[in-house]
Amino acid sequence: MGSERRVVTRDEIAAAAGVSAATVSYVVNNGPRPVSPRTRSKVLHAIDSLGYKPNAIARNLRMHRSTTIGLIIPDINNPYFAQVARGVEQMASENGLTTVLCHSSYSVEGELRYVDVLQSERAAGVIWFPATNSPEPGKRMTEFGMPLVILDRSVPGVPAPAVVANNFLGGLLATGHLIELGHRTIGYIARSTDLSHSSERLRGYQAALANFGIERDDSLIVRGGFKLEDGYQAAKQLLEGPHRPSGIFAYNDFMALAALRAAYELGIHVPGDLSVVGFDDIPEAAFACPSLTTIAQAKHEMGRQGVAFLLEIINQNPPGTSRSESLPVELVVRESTGPVPPADNHLKGLSSDPRGARP
Length: 359
What we know:
By secondary structure, this protein is an alpha/beta fold. It contains 14 helices and twelve strands.
């Protein structure tokens, strides 16, 4: 059997140090009441002697760092970030750390502001969802000597371990699913700016088309944004364009849900006239009408693994600045995808065979 570590309780530390649980709390949290140097030393010794997880706390206290970590996310309204944040918070709590949520609103200036705040508060480390490709927030954290882990994407010029999904495979699976249903005219709603995760999903989309011998039409690639309204406008651009697709793959579920709304308003039936695939598998995807076919990724595990990497750095055993953990993805088929409409096959001169072979 493996020797799985457990969380040491405050009462156990108090008993070992011969002090009250409240005194342990004052030491761990640097207040609110003062603790004598002798008592503080006893508590820190008890923390050290009772296991590895509290060692990070003790080390931070000796370095005058807090037991707080920062989680910088771009969009508090997107349920995807909330699900990853839950994994971060849970893993941090299990290891005696408190998570502070920092909402950058897709702004580099917002990220830099929170980096300065976390530095002034002597945060133990930072988990960062970059809002853009700008390396400035990451470089500032590196200059401050702050332990840093990046989630969901990577940023050129920032040497930090990252935890990402297999985004290329996700794009390949989503587009391949539509092709196997007979779709040949497939639109893609891309991110408004290129970050590694969205670029990899686009690359998967393009690779699936190439694998099936379908000529790429860049007019079917439109830029969405971060809000539902952005996805709605991007979908309308595709659906009202000269080459209306029979299938749409969106870089995330927000954009895909907005595409469902755009299709409804235009009188386009899903999946009878149009199939839609998203990415992330946020909770709302299963409750949309029709329910959304999507690429599910391990959101909770991503958050937990990010904290695991951060703890390795805090405990002076860094996983390597170039290390990247790629988590699995899977296709979840629901009601928003179906066979290509017969008219589309007729117009394209193709059979319903997904590879276009005639019987």
